[in-house]
Amino acid sequence: MSKLLKFYSLFSLSLLGSFLQAQKTKTHIAFINGVVHVGNGTVYETGIVTLQGQTLEMVMDMKGLRLNPPAYDTVIDLQGQHVYPALINTNSILGLHDADAVRATLDFQEVGEFNPHVRSLIAYNTDNKITPTVKTNGVLYTQVTPRGNLIAGTSSILSLEGWNWEDAVLKADDGIHLNFPVEKYMGWDEEKGMNLKKNKNYTEQLNKLHQFFSQAQAYCLQATPNEKNIRFEAMRGVFSGTQRLYITAFKAHEMLAAIQFVKQYSIKAPVICGARDALKIAEVLKTSKIPVILSRLHDLPDLESDDIDAVFKLPAQLSKDSILFCLSAYGDMESMQSRNLPFIAGTAAAYGLGKEAALTAITLNAARILGIDKQLGSLEAGKLASLVISQGDILDMRSSQVVMAYLNGKPVTLSNQQTELYEKYKAKYGIK
Question: Which CATH class is domain 86-377?
Answer without folding.
Answer: alpha beta
